[in-house]
Design brief:
The protein is of the alpha/beta class. Helices cover 50% and strands 13% of the residues. It has 14 helices and nine strands. Helix 5 runs parallel beside helix 9 and helix 7 crosses helix 8. The two termini are 21 Å apart. Bound molecules: coproporphyrinogen III.
Length: 319
Amino acid sequence: MRQAGRSLPEYRAAREGTAMLEACLTPALASEITLQPVRRHDVDAAIFFSDIVVPLKLAGVDVEIKPGVGPVMGAPVRTADDVARLRDLGPLTAEQLAPVAEGVALTVGALGGTPLIGFAGAPFTLAAYLVEGGPSRDHLAARTLMHADPATWTALTEWAADVTGAFLRAQVLAGASAAQLFDSWAGSLGLADYTAHVAPASARALGSIADLGVRKVHFGTGTSELLVAMRDVGADVVGVDYRLPLDEANRRLGGSTPLQGNVDPALLAAPWPVLEAHVRDVVARGEAAPGHVVNLGHGVPPETDPDVLTRVVQLVHSL
Ligand code: CP3
């Protein structure tokens, strides 16, 4: 999951002196960082080291990732004119995406058969950062815009779908074996808003790789009420955070959709017997679904002891 590397001393050493987005766009460094958790923890797949705002940066948006804060925009995108200026940046070209494709290709070569998961941010989560200008708790400005000016909102989310879709497509074409769409902040929406104002753009983003034949995972947090809608935009696998047990998630999805996730990141800092019991419970409940990709329900807290992560992987393999 996101920011997994931050708990590793070798990650901090590799990143020393290099800004986050610069690291993402330096293929050899992005590849090395992607491999670090695979070497250390013996996980069954790698997730490409990049960030959901990389396609915004490549398109020419003034964005940086501030340590301890997250993505911050030079100026928020709020009006029809702001969105028109974004759209003038155009779709992403192969030239712009070259550092991403190169990073993926290097990584796939070095992984020697271990699958690489490519990923991108969903249009709502990207639009939330663009409209708010940075991280936000309630995404009020974004939720206002979708109702106050639906045409501008639609234009914004369609543009976001196209750049993020191009980013995802570049990763798959360069060799990623699966693709995950992160709608991290979709949980701030009710089902009606999600369906009317967000689902079409997410379907458009996933549609951009529909012809490539890789499995598509769709993840959000606080999305217990949105699981069916998030599957129905074109996902093969639904990510479940730590709020809903997997047997209940499976029931809500009608028993036909493989699941991913569900280990509570908070328990990584609990005594081992507590964490072990939790992981065993998550795996047991996941048996209800047609498949379960064991993973955390959200990001790795930076202060996590890496040895605990290795032990969790060993436990899951033993099960
Ligand atoms: O763990 C990995 O390296 C996988 C690659 C990955 C990153 N970001 C690298 C990263 C992935 C899959 C992401 C996704 C991402 N980025 C999401 C979606 C998933 C989620 O977490 O909900 C979101 C919302 C972002 C935006 C973002 N980027 C945030 C909120 C932050 C954290 C800011 C902070 O310091 O608290 C980032 C920075 C970021 N992205 C880091 C990494 C490794 C940390 C950079 C650092 O501090 O060294």
